[in-house]
Amino acid sequence: MSDRPNSQGSDTTEGKKVQQKPLNGELAVDIIEAIPDGVVMVDIDGKMTFINRAFEKILEYNGNQIDGQE
Question: What are the residue boundaries of the structural domains of the chain, listed by start?
């Protein structure tokens, strides 16, 4: 048996089953903002929907400028 989480998000290491709770939106944004690497999110059409502060700093880009840019 693998020590990796299975596709249902449960850890089966040593027979233990731990249910993982999904992150709420605000916590997820806080975590992404804390990442020192640049992060950009795009929608299915390839338009930017979110960039974190590190992305702004690295590329000297302003988050207010994205407004759906490709």
Answer: 22-63
